């Protein structure tokens, strides 16, 4: 179906402090650029070695550490500084956690911290699993609820540089409300919301088949595959202050328009002073 290439493209947009909603079993994890996290941890390890070594070793390590630290801002223009993954299913997050520990090398020997996260997500059933002092987090929550802020240790702002979602709008109760919620979590002006969704296509025959089987498909998979994603995005942009559509595409012609690529941003101070 060609979805892998779209996942790679989606992951290439992930930079800085990243929030992924409806992450499921973590199918996007293998395609993210984790080098900023790896580089930062290597620099921290070098600094610790510097404290423990002799004077000559300290000089060499200091030079290496300084070089790594100085180069870090350039690296952070691409790749992930911190990652927060959210899903409503504990089972899916369990699979995603296993993938995360295999995908990010420093996690192989890292012990996770588990704690309740109801104060973050507004749900008594929510929970959070975090690694590397909160740099990597998996949160069980509903996308309709208040979203967890970016980790304060790695981000001066509580908002994210990139918000990503793959095939999530088909399975939520109120897609427009969820889009407004995503807008509340992304940095104004500089941040981006990037979505890969599926729904109604170009052709009446295809849409008729989707409509005819929508109820059965939802009952089996919890997915309304006949939603008009583009119309929902346009409605969210009309009703959410500052939310703007950057791009809407229908990739993969063989999918007959059922795949929808969306990029959104939030403009700051919209409506103020008017």
UniProtKB/TrEMBL annotation:
<dbReference type="GO" id="GO:0008168">
    <property type="term" value="F:methyltransferase activity"/>
</dbReference>
<protein>
    <submittedName>
        <fullName>Methyltransferase OMS1</fullName>
    </submittedName>
</protein>
<feature type="region of interest" description="Disordered">
    <location>
        <begin position="47"/>
        <end position="69"/>
    </location>
</feature>
<dbReference type="InterPro" id="IPR029063">
    <property type="entry name" value="SAM-dependent_MTases_sf"/>
</dbReference>
<keyword id="KW-0489">Methyltransferase</keyword>
<keyword id="KW-0808">Transferase</keyword>
<dbReference type="GO" id="GO:0032259">
    <property type="term" value="P:methylation"/>
</dbReference>
<dbReference type="InterPro" id="IPR050508">
    <property type="entry name" value="Methyltransf_Superfamily"/>
</dbReference>
